[in-house]
Amino acid sequence: MIYDIQTGLPYYLDSITTDIKSPVIDSLYQLKSSESILKEGNQFNTFDFEAERNRLYAYFKNQGIYHFQLNSIDFEIAWDTTGTDFQLPVKIAIEDFRKPTSDGIVFEPYKQTKINAVNVYTTGVDEVESRTRFDSISFFGLKKKRYSQNMLSKAIQMRSGDLYSDRARTQTIAKLNHLGIFEYPTITYSYSDSLETSLNTIITLRPRERFELEFGLDLTQSNIQDQGIAFNSNINVLNIFRGAENFEFGVRGTIGRSADDVISEIGGDVKLRIPKILMPRMIAKLIPENLQPISVLNFGTALQNNIGLDKQTYSAGVQYQWRSKKNNRIDFNLLDLTLVDNRNVQNYFNVYTNAYSELNSLAKSTIGTSTFFNGDNLAIPNGTAGFTNYVLSDSSPITKGSPSYLSVQRIEERRGRLTQNNLIIGSSIDFLKNTQTSFFDENFYQVRFQFESAGNLVNLLAEPLNLERKNETYYLFNLPYSQYVKGEFDYIQHWLVSSSSVFALRTFVGLAVPIGNATSIPFNRSYFSGGANDNRAWEVYRLGPGSSFSGNEFNEANFKLALNLEYRFDLFGSFKGALFTDVGNIWNVFDDVTDPKRRFDGFGDLSELAVGSGFGVRYDFGLFIFRLDTGFKTHNPALEKSKRWLTELQLKKANVTIGINYPF
Length: 664
What we know:
By secondary structure, this protein is mainly β. Among the domains are: about 10-100, Ubiquitin-like (UB roll); about 115-205, Roll (Ubiquitin-like (UB roll)), CATH 3.10.20; about 345-420, no CATH class. About 15% of the residues lie in helices and about 40% in strands. The strands form six sheets. The protein has a 17-stranded antiparallel β-sheet that branches. A hairpin with a 2-residue loop joins β13 and β14. α7 (about 355-365) packs antiparallel against α9 (about 405-420). The mean pLDDT is about 90.
C-alpha cells in the first residue's frame, strides 16, 4: 500500500467573535481576551483550539465558576467549500450550565461561587471532641492538640469569602502532602445556600502513624566487596514538636568478604526535618511558604573495618531546600561538616598493592637498601617509609629529578594525601530543573548546577583566631582543614524516538580547585571515571587521569569531563536493549600534581578523552530495571598514540558491568 499525500495551501484565522450566554462568563472572558491563543492571522492549527479550550476552562475554574463544564466551550468555523478563500472566521461559543433534573437537562446561567466556611477534621467525624477556630478556619479534633493550627492554616490556601479556585485546592493538597504527616488529604465541597452561590469546604486529614519502623536487607557486590549483605533500619517519629517536624534515626551496615578478608561497615544517622526555613524571620521571609521550604539538621557517623584504611567518618550539616516559582528545586547547605579519620594508615601499602610493587621493585634495584627489607620484600610500614625517606632525602644513589626519583616522589605524595585525615567545613548550593511530567515521560530534559566552597571562611578567620600554623598550613583541632572551590554542571536530555525507543544524552563537567590552605582535593571530594554509571568500557576508578597508566587501585583527580549517548529500545516481553557510547576522562589541574600525563594543560589534552562503546541488555521487573552492559575500549588514551583507536575491540578485553535502573 502506497500513500500519496499532496498538501495544499494553508488556512489562516480571520475574525474572531464570541457568543457567550452567561453574563458572568462573558465579563470574565473580556478581562483576559488578550491572552487568547487564537489570534487573527495565525495559521490554522487544531492544537491551538484544544489549548484555548483548556486555558478558558482553567481560567473560569479559578475565578469562582465551581461547576464550569468543559463541554460548554465550542468553536464554530466558517469553511469556504469552494476552496478559493483561505481565511477562516472563528466564533467562540460558550453555553450556559447544563443542569440535570428529573425532567431532563435545564440550561442555567453560570454563577460565581464563594467559600462560605472552611472546616478541617484532624480525626474521624465520630471521634471529634473539640472545635476551635483559628485564622477564620474551624478545626475539629481531639481535646489534646496534636497539630499546630498556625502550621495547618499556612498550608490551607482558601478562606471564607474567597472565590472558589481549583488552583487554591491543588496548592492546599500539595502543601499538606509536603508536611509529610498525613495520608492523602481530601477536600470536598457542598453548597451552603439554595441559590448555590457559596460553598462549605471540608478538609479531611488522615494522620499517619506517629512512629514508623523501616527495615531493609540487600545482597551487595562491588569492586571492593566480592559479596556481602547490607542492612538498614530506620525509626521515624512524625510531628515530634506538633509543627510537622519529622525526626529520623537510622542504622545501616554491611558485612561481606573481599578476597580472604571479612570486611564490614556500620553507621548511624540522626536527621530532623522541619517544614520551614529555620532562620531569623527577616531572612526566612525571603523564601515564602508557597515555595515549600524545608530545613534539615543531620548528624552521622560510619566506621569501616578491613576496607582500605579503616575510616571513621563523622558528618553534620544544616540544609535548606525549596522550590522556585517554576518548580525548580534549590538545595542550600549552609553548613557541611565532614571529618575523615584514617585509623589504619600503616596498612596503606597492603591496600594499594600496585604502588607497593613499584616501590618494592625500585628498592631491589637500589644499593644500600637491605635494612629496609623483611626477607625478599620491603617491610610494611617501616621498610617502605625508610626507603622513601632514603630516596627523597638525597641519601641514595638515585639522583634527584631522575625517573626513579620522580616515581618515589609521586608514590609518597599520593600516600601522604590519601592517608591524611580530612576536615572539611563548607557550604554549597545546588540548582535542579527537571521538565519530566511523570515517570513515563520520555521527552524531557534535566539540568543541574552546583557550587561548593570549603574552608574559605575558616581561612579568613585563621589569623584573628590565632590558629596553629605549620609549614604554611593552618591547623584547626590539630587537623589541616581543606580549602577549595568546586563547581559542577550536569545535563540530561531524553527524546522519544518511537513508542518503543528512546535516545538519551548526558553531559557532565566538574572542577574542584584547591586554594589557600590546601594543595590538593580530599579523596571523597575528587572525581573518578569508569564503572556502570560512567564510562562502561573501564572498571570504576581504572580510567585516567589523562593518558597515564599508573595502575593505582583508586585513580582520582580534580577535573572531569563526560559525555554519554544511549539508544534504548524494546526487544521482546520485558527484555530491552541498548547501544551506547561513553566519552570522558579525569585530569589534575591547578593542584600539586606535576606529571604531564596526568595534568590538563590545555585544549590539546582533549585528545586524551577515552571513548567506550558497546551494547546492553536490560530486564524490566516493574519496580526496577536490571542492567547488563558490555563496553569496549574504542579509544584508550593510556596506549601509545598510534594504538589508541580500535585496537581493543576483542570480547576478552571487554568490560562487563551490572547496574540497577538506567545510568541517566
